[in-house]
Specification:
By secondary structure, the chain is α/β, with parallel strands linked by helices. Helix content is about 55%, strand content about 10%. It is built from 24 helices and ten strands. The strands form two sheets. The chain has a six-stranded parallel beta sheet with strand order 1-10-7-4-2-3, sandwiched between helices. It has a four-stranded mixed beta sheet with strand order 8-5-6-9. A hairpin with a 4-residue loop joins β5 and β6. The structure holds iron/sulfur cluster. Iron/sulfur cluster binds next to α14. The site of iron/sulfur cluster has 15 residues, from α14.
Length: about 475
């Protein structure tokens, strides 16, 4: 079965799962309430978006120079910088590091790039224990699931679901309170921090003018993962670059508002170099791995390159009507929702992943919600174009398209086709055939209530307003 058919099947199953949709609706409604409140504190949110867009434009259009500046400043601060073209190269770098330092246990903070390169399964396959320390990631790791959302890995779960998972995996009593469950996770994880030899984190931003890695989180787990073990490795996609430290004054609040509706995320950490001589905390070695993994393919595409501006806030997922119905797991990718549908075909191949661009109503809600104003729905349309470019249509398809084009171009044919359609709709309704094999619209009516048939067509209504319109 192709990935496209997998997607259609899993999204159809999720869309008809009313419990799943109710959980998702509650989570996204709650999110939008908080986002509105936080945006209201801005004098001009759109002005901020345009400023953020220009900064990312500058960073991505000078990516080579920015990255070299970052590398040079990071090394001056004592970091060891590695370049990786593919996930396999990251695996090799880490395998060698782990062997050199006899690493058996790794604590990890939330990082989508490590999901992208399937790092946990690689390291576990080499006999290492990898512990996710972000609470949401810890829960999905216990359940053996991938993260559901780029910001909120357990958006699909209720407190009762987590209660059951903890009961089953950690032996907590059923019916534990949320505080009790969080306390259990804290106790388990503290022990892991203290006994791990390596900590792995992602990076929300990497700052060219200082060589610093900026990490944003709400639980303090990234600080512990990066400072308690003797070795810290930060893995970052090359697109996470921003030019100056002062740019964080714009990006950190915008990421928080769009990501979770907070004015600022609880912990914002800047890391440059390992522990200095007079410092009591911090790792002995600090490694930064800069990963390409298909990003330069996107960079080479002048019309879609701006997708590299993404700061992974997740706002476009929450606002997308498709995501809100099918959820994150249906996509079968690391990056879900509109941004996932734009970047995945570039990162993992258009032939296998181009179908995701069709999972959009092109309503533009994603573009409106994006804090760096990426024109997401236009990119989705471009990918649809790229997917079908050069496609060969059968004789029947060509004939259908010709008839369709002819009807759409002719006023009277269009009016006649509408009348015919309405007549058919009335027949289906009169004989109660909706959703049956005899219903030509059964793919739609099989799972939805058809809209009521209007008394008059739009054209008839428009004509009836003729005198009014002329006035
Ligand atoms: S595309 Fe925009 S809205 Fe979507 S995750 Fe990236 S920054 Fe956020």
């Amino acid at each position: 079965m192709s990935l496209a058919s997998d997607f259609i099947q899993s999204s159809a199953a999720k869309a008809s799962d009313l419990r799943h949709r109710a959980v998702l609706k509650k989570a996204t409604d709650n999110y939008f309430g908080k986002v509105q409140q936080s945006k209201a504190t801005y004098l001009d949110w759109n002005h901020g978006r345009e400023a953020a867009r220009s900064i990312k434009w500058l960073a991505i259009n000078q990516l080579d120079e920015m990255l070299e500046r970052f590398e040079s400043n990071a090394e001056k601060a004592g970091a060891i910088v590695h370049w990786a073209e593919t996930s396999e190269e990251v695996h090799k770098i880490l395998e060698a590091l782990c062997a050199r330092h006899n690493v058996r246990k790794i604590v990890k903070s939330k990082s989508m790039v490590t999901e992208e390169i399937h790092l946990n399964s690689f390291l576990e396959g080499r006999g290492m224990k990898v512990v996710e320390t972000d609470l949401g990631e810890f829960i999905v790791q216990l359940r053996g699931e991938p993260p559901y959302h780029i910001i909120t890995p357990v958006m699909h779960l209720t407190k009762e679901d987590v209660d059951e998972t903890f009961h089953e995996k950690l032996g907590t009593p059923l019916g534990s309170s949320a505080e009790g469950l969080a306390g259990t996770a804290r106790r388990v994880l503290r022990e892991e921090y203290l006994t791990a030899e390596m900590g792995i984190t992602g990076a929300n931003f990497i700052v060219a003018d200082s060589g610093a890695v900026s990490i944003t989180e709400n639980e303090g787990n990234a600080r512990l993962s990066s400072s308690v073990p003797k070795i810290h490795v930060a893995i970052s996609g090359i697109e996470k670059i921003i030019p100056r430290m002062e740019d964080l004054a714009l990006f950190l609040p915008m990421l928080a508002v769009s990501g979770t509706g907070q004015k600022l995320t609880c912990y914002n950490t800047l890391i440059s170099g390992p522990r200095r001589q007079n410092e009591i905390d911090g790792p002995d070695e600090f490694h930064i791995i800069l990963l390409d993994n298909g990003r330069t393919n996107l960079l080479a595409n002048a019309t879609q390159r701006e997708a590299l501006h993404c700061i992974r806030c997740g706002a476009c997922l929450n606002s997308c009507p498709v995501f809100r119905n099918v959820g994150g797991h249906a996509y079968g990718t690391t990056y879900q929702g509109p941004i996932g549908s734009v970047i995945t075909p570039h990162l993992r191949g258009l032939d296998d992943w181009g179908h995701l661009a069709s999972a959009s109503s092109l309503c533009g809600a994603c573009t409106d919600s994006c804090p760096v104003h990426i024109d997401l729905h236009r990119h989705l349309l471009e990918i649809r174009h790229d997917t079908t470019a050069g496609a060969k249509f059968s004789m029947v398809q060509q004939m259908i398209l010709k008839i369709w084009a002819g009807v759409m171009r002719s006023d009277w044919l269009y009016a006649a086709a509408s009348r015919l359609g309405r007549f058919g709709q009335k027949l289906v309704k009169a004989f109660e055939l909706e959703g049956s094999i005899l219903d030509p619209a059964r793919n739609w009516t099989g799972t939805r209530k058809p809209p009521a048939i209007a008394a008059v067509t739009f054209k008839e209504w428009w004509k009836s307003r003729g005198n009014l319109a002329k006035n």
